Amino acid sequence: MSSKRKTRARSVEAKDKQLQRIIKAGRELFLKHGPEGVSMRKLAQKLDMGQASLYTYISSKRELWFAILKNDFSKFELGMAEIMQAHKGSYKELLEKIAQFYLEFAKEDGKRYKMMFQTQAPQAEKTGLLEQQYDSKSIYYLQDVVQKAVDAGEIREKDVGKLSFFIWGIVHGTVSVVQTEFFGDKEKIPEYGNIDEYHQFALKYIRKMLNEM
Questions:
Q1: Which structural domain range is residue 143 located in?
Q2: What is the mean pLDDT of residues 15-21?
Q3: DSSP code, position 60
Q4: What is this structure's pTM?
Q5: What region does 124 belong to: left with phi over 0, alpha with psi -120 to 50, or beta?
Q6: Cβ neighbours for 85, distance < 8 A, ≥ 6 positions apart
Q7: Exposure winner among 96, 111, 142, 159, fewest CB in 10 A?
Q8: Count of alpha carbons within 13 angstroms of residue 169, beta-carbon side
Q9: Same domain, 113 and 199
């Protein structure tokens, strides 16, 4: 490799490393303060860099949001893909595994889950390049498995789109329930059980629902 190509490669690597540093710091601010409590000025201060330099990487607070989502969903979807590739058994069983993956992720990192799935992006006058390129594929992965279950004769329901979104809604609804004051930070509440117990209860009825289809 020529010295010019080595220099260019190092430059690209350095820019990517700095972008990842910006994404990490931005995520920390959003998770701590929410969309309204974050500004590009605060981010520049946290990173100890000038705002002008920051804008060469990220053009707005909304673009920063989508850069973070793109980064987080790529890891989340990789986890889903690994489950799908390693699965042995029926597609109904795979759907339950995917539901459990969502629930476990939400339990382990509730704030990030809320940012990814439940919080609106900051407003902006323009749609930036990162937002234009952003496309979460997790619902499509779920829909693909539902379609395979239908094709294999495991599920009689033919409206794959609505059924996929219904399953997705049950999972996200379960997450929303356990994020309320009924569970809070306590390990055990007698009326409802702890979070793990409620997750298992929800999975049991997702399994029951799928088996009856």
A1: 69-211
A2: 92
A3: S
A4: 0.86
A5: beta
A6: none
A7: 159
A8: 6
A9: yes
